[in-house]
Prior knowledge:
Shape: elongated
Order of helices and strands: HHHHHEHEHEHEHEHEHEEH
Radius of gyration: 20 Å
Mean pLDDT: 89
CATH architecture of the largest domain: 3-Layer(aba) Sandwich
Structural class: alpha/beta
Helix content: 40-55%
Oligomer: single chain
Bound molecules: guanosine-5'-diphosphate, magnesium ion
CATH topology of the largest domain: Rossmann fold
Strand order of the largest sheet: 3-2-4-1-5-6-7-8
Largest sheet: 8 strands, mixed
Amino acid sequence: xxxxxxxxxxxxxxxxxxxxxxxxxxxxxxxxxxxxxxxxxxxxxxxxxxxxxxxxxxxxxxxxxxxxxxxxxxxxxxxxxxxxxxxxxxxxxxxxxxxxxxxxxxxxxxxxxxxxxxxxxxxxxxxxxxxxxxxxxxxxxxxxxxxxxxxxxxxxxxxxxxxxxxxxxxxxxxxxxxxxxxxxxxxxxxxxxxxxxxxxxxxxxxxxxxxxxxxxxxxxxxxxxxxxxxxxxxxxxxxxxxxxxxxxxxxxxxxxxxxxxxxxxxxxxxxxxxxxxxxxxxxxxxxxxxxxxx
Length: 294
Ligand SMILES: Nc1nc2c(ncn2[C@@H]2O[C@H](COP(=O)(O)OP(=O)(O)O)[C@@H](O)[C@H]2O)c(=O)[nH]1
Ligand SMILES: [Mg+2]
């Protein structure tokens, strides 16, 4: 538990520097510069409402910043913790489709999830539904060889829906517990690409009417508040059930998670803290808020 917390804390070090140190520095000035405080809070991507709550509760200097901000963040993030253990109770295979923009970490997260669930004693199959880039299938193939999970491969230009369909059918016939579908990165404002996702969702619903139980948006934390708009559009188009926030190790914008949850109320299941298969942790809101302010 302590090990996990320190990993989150190390990962969030750059955010912490930006958020807490910049604010503490403001408190050290003779007169609290509320404009600078406001700017620092916005720069941390906490979202408008959270920033306003903090601003209205931070009236004077010599106040312990943490004591003011921590309860506000915890209150904002109430209900944000997705519990992966709760997912493992379905009778049918659990199907999780990963969607998001280019380079957000979907393929890496697919492999990390395969590793995570295998560690839990579950059998996993992954579908290479990114048929847009030739390299996408190869990337997953390397992970599948390294981590020894079943992979339904595809070729460039194949219909992603049919790859997803085949993967779900294979999961039933091979009695798999978990299905992870990796998809191509897409822009939220391209209607044809959103329609392609809806088609994929319908296609696997024909394999079993409970499929997919989950659609998670994989979000690069370093995109900051820009990620809020795209996640909202994905949610409108396809109905998200969760998020995975990646690159919290390198990002100086760990507050993105707060802004997105505050706006959309979609639970966070996992956070990505590096490029290795073990660099994925179930999201724990208390650890996260502590790490953000430690
Ligand atoms: N530092 C860091 N890098 C990550 C993380 N997740 C993914 N990446 C890297 O981000 C890049 C894009 O990842 P990829 O999974 O191919 O993104 P995709 O286009 O959404 O499938 C790769 O170089 C990954 O190694 C993370 O949590 N932390
Ligand atoms: Mg990919």
